[in-house]
């Protein structure tokens, strides 16, 4: 397993310490610390894992793991190369250029449509060619990190499954990672699936467990400094919500739809209630999507803001910066622990609400409808 | 209207909207916490049921508050 993993690492990542290359970025001017850029640089996706930068002799040397870029455009076809060949927006590769804040300003692009980190097509003279449509299928840091988290999750689960197959920890107390995971799995089964899904819980338990652990592992991996913000990516949460939506729709029965299109209320209320119920089908998964996204993004932003405070104060006065840093670091550690709690809580809420919605979709009417009329 | 003024008004609107959303969520989650604590004080043996229902309801309230935050954010960005 370890050998295979390092092989994957070798295949995909071209780790290059830019300090060894000569083509690192020359800083234009001594800029004041820009908190906005740092925050959004972390929140958005990127074509590299950027860990830190160090400065020697006025040059900035970023330390990053570069990831492959795969682009498709109807006019130019498929092209793939490493993101390190962009040299942080300095160079165009195969007719494509990486946008940076500097480039956007230079080419006078609409700053609302384009942001740093995107890729645009350029013509021979190096100017952006907006007529060329690009589909970006790159293995960005979100994608790569999700794969790593997934591999980790599958590995942990397979190890545990093997142990249970060998009847280890069934009659005796479970040990190690098994002992950590077993209470969580049991908790999801007994407190999330069983009360909401009743007699059908065995059918939906694999999905509920998977969605819980997938969100959990992605949120936890995303808390490691230097990693991407996967669980706080709207596309990630949207896909999870979409899968939940499909599961809810496919497990619905006649009564569920009857309650939406012909609710047991007086006829005068029906024109109001039917649109509300119809909207409710879509707002449930939408709320799932927004809740996970906003919680994760908010946590990450708070942490970066607190770290940024040091540099904002440090730019005013060095002594103030040093004075603020211990408080800032203490707060960050506090928020980090809260974030670990939030990672568990949001995974639990997502799994719980999915179970509740699925349970609502197939529940049979247990009350007399005459009561309402 | 002047472009910068328009943007400033949009930013202020977004921030005020997000703040009002937080007020609503604060009242709502406060009520849930109050109800849950009172219920647990009355019936400590029902702790598990009350807790899971409390988290569920709080999540629903929080979802609405986050809608407000997202709409406020969109008012600023768009």
Q: Give the largest interface.
A: A-B, 15 and 15 residues
Total helical elements of chain B: 2
Largest sheet of chain B: none
Alpha-beta classification of chain B: mainly alpha
Helix proportion of chain B: over 70%
Mean pLDDT of chain B: 86
Features:
heterodimer, A: 373 residues, mainly alpha, 3-stranded antiparallel beta sheet, 10 helices, 57% helix, 12% strand, disordered N terminus, B: 78 residues, 91% helix, rod-shaped
What's this model, at a glance?
The complex is a heterodimer of chains A (373) and B (78). With 373 residues, chain A is mostly helical.
Notes on the protein architecture:
The complex is a heterodimer of chains A (373) and B (78). The longest helix of chain A has 47 residues, at 270-316. Helix content of chain A is 57%, strand content 12%. Chain A is mainly alpha-helical. Chain A has two domains: 13-136, no CATH class; 141-371, no CATH class. Chain B is mainly α. Chain B has a domain at 26-78. The longest helix of chain B has 40 residues, at 3-42. Chain B is rod-shaped, with a radius of gyration of 18 Å. Chain B starts with a helix and ends with a helix.
SSE blueprint and pairings:
The complex is a heterodimer of chains A (373) and B (78).
Chain A: H1 2-12, E1 14-17, H2 35-43, E2 48-56, E3 59-66, E4 68-73, E5 77-82, E6 92-93, E7 96-98, H3 101-106, E8 119-121, E9 135-136, H4 141-165, H5 176-197, H6 201-221, H7 234-250, H8 254-261, H9 270-316, H10 318-362
Antiparallel strand pairs in A: 1-3, 2-3, 4-5, 4-9, 6-7, 7-8
Helix pairs in contact in A: 2-9, 4-6, 5-6, 5-10, 6-10, 7-9, 7-10, 9-10
Chain B: H1 3-42, H2 47-77
Helix pairs in contact in B: 1-2
């Amino acid at each position: 397993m370890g050998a295979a993993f390092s092989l994957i690492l070798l295949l995909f990542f071209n780790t290059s310490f830019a300090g060894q290359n000569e083509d690192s970025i020359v800083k234009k001017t001594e800029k004041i610390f820009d908190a906005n850029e740092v925050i959004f640089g972390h929140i958005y996706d990127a074509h590299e894992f950027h860990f830190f930068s160090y400065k020697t002799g006025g040059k900035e040397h970023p330390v990053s793991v570069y990831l492959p870029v795969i682009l498709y455009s109807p006019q130019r076809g498929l092209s793939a190369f490493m993101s390190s060949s962009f040299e942080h927006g300095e160079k165009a590769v195969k007719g494509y250029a990486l946008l940076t804040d500097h480039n956007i300003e230079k080419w006078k692009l609409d700053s609302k449509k384009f942001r740093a980190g995107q890729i645009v097509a350029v013509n021979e003279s190096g100017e952006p060619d907006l007529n060329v449509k690009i589909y970006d299928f790159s293995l960005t840091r979100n994608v790569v990190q999700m794969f790593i988290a997934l591999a980790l999750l599958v590995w942990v689960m397979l190890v545990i499954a093997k142990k249970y197959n060998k009847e280890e920890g069934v009659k005796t107390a479970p040990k190690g990672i098994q002992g950590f995971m077993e209470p969580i799995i049991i908790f999801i089964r007994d407190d999330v699936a069983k009360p909401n899904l009743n007699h059908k819980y065995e059918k939906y338990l694999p999905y509920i467990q998977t969605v819980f652990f997938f969100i959990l592992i992605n949120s936890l991996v995303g808390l490691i400094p230097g990693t991407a913000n996967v669980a706080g990516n709207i596309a990630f949460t949207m896909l999870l919500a979409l899968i939940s939506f499909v599961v809810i729709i496919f497990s619905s029965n006649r009564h569920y739809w009857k309650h939406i299109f012909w609710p047991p209320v007086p006829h005068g209320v029906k024109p109001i209630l039917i649109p509300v119920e119809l909207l409710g089908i879509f707002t449930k998964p939408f709320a799932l999507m927004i809740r996970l996204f906003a919680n994760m993004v908010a946590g990450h932003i708070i942490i970066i803001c607190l770290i940024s405070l040091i540099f904002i104060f440090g730019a005013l006065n060095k002594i103030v910066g040093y004075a603020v840093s211990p408080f800032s670091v203490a707060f960050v550690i506090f928020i980090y622990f809260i974030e670990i709690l939030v990672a568990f809580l949001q995974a639990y809420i997502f799994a719980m609400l999915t179970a509740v919605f699925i349970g609502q979709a197939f529940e049979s009417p247990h009350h007399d409808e005459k009561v309402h009329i | 209207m002047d472009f910068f003024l328009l943007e400033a008004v949009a930013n202020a609107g977004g921030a005020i909207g997000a703040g009002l959303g937080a007020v609503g969520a604060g009242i709502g989650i406060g009520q849930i916490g109050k109800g849950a604590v009172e219920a647990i004080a009355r019936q400590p043996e029902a702790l598990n049921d009350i807790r899971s229902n409390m988290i569920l309801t709080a999540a629903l309230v929080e979802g609405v508050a986050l809608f407000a935050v997202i709409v406020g954010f969109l008012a600023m960005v768009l």
